[in-house]
Amino acid sequence: MTDAPRRVAFFGSPAFALPVLEAIRAQFEVVLVVAQPDKPVGRGLKLTPPPVAARATELGLPLAQPKKLRGNADFEATLRDSGADVAVTCAYGKILPGSLLTVPRYGFLNTHTSLLPKYRGAAPIQWALIEGERVTGTTIMVTDEGMDTGPVLLQEPLDIDLHWTSVDLSAHLSAQAARLIVDALARVGTLSPTVQDHTLATHARMLEKDDGRVRWTDTASQVYDRYRGVYAWPGTFTTWRGRLLKLNQLHPTGGHGAPGTVLSVSEAGLTVACGEGAVLVATVQPEGKRAMPAADWWRGAGGQLGDPFRADA
């Protein structure tokens, strides 16, 4: 953007987007920050701004938190009046109407946490882990009216460490996105967009509560990959004698038996059989109680070797 002032409107909401905002702010003029509206949080349901909105307020940046975008003439005027040359979206959380996309001179760029067209949608980080991917990455794309369907400007892979949870992977992808978007912004107007092959697209839907339930007939690796993917939310859980039990820490180990049965107990935890192999469950959290070592819980619960966990409620 050597021929124009480098003025950026930034659309983002969660903590994931903060490094991206900071990287942009360090090299460009952020003329508007747009985030989701404040939401009730915690037991007291205190109205709380999303992290990006809170940071914008700290920095004294112009902030907008529209409840809706489609048909919102006031917000469209706010974006136009900001004088932004280009807009960037990063985990903003709303699909942009076509009327907004042409307001900035260079349109909208989006940071997406997968190697598009794979894992379009709301939860690419989580599903990449659940599906056992060993490589993911960041895509900088031109935003269109579809869901992650726009042309690709930049793309960079990232190897996934076998010990990373969704929290770990998010942190690495956030840093990668921050670096790549600065590169893309510096070259806006010169990068050649590449149309995605839509026939190769996969969908990473938003997680549901039941995605955290252990499928004991899965292999130990699959159980572990799901645990990594749902780590931040909804967490991993199973059913014990009709009550939910959260499994806070587990990893694959050796063992063989009927899926879901407890094979052995040690101070390290419970060895539980899967469809293939087994997992060692180190800590658990019964309903309404704090997390505790799995072996301590087992003794208190009166468990016997061969007792089964259940995949259904």
Automatic annotation (TrEMBL):
Residues of the Formyl transferase N-terminal domain: 7-185
Residue span(s) of domain Formyl transferase C-terminal: 207-301
Reaction catalyzed: L-methionyl-tRNA(fMet) + (6R)-10-formyltetrahydrofolate = N-formyl-L-methionyl-tRNA(fMet) + (6S)-5,6,7,8-tetrahydrofolate + H(+)
Keywords, alphabetical: Protein biosynthesis, Transferase
CDD domains referenced in this protein's UniProt entry, alphabetically: FMT_core_Met-tRNA-FMT_N (cd08646), Met_tRNA_FMT_C (cd08704)
Free-text function comment from the UniProt entry: Attaches a formyl group to the free amino group of methionyl-tRNA(fMet). The formyl group appears to play a dual role in the initiator identity of N-formylmethionyl-tRNA by promoting its recognition by IF2 and preventing the misappropriation of this tRNA by the elongation apparatus.
Protein's UniProt name: Methionyl-tRNA formyltransferase
Protein's gene: fmt
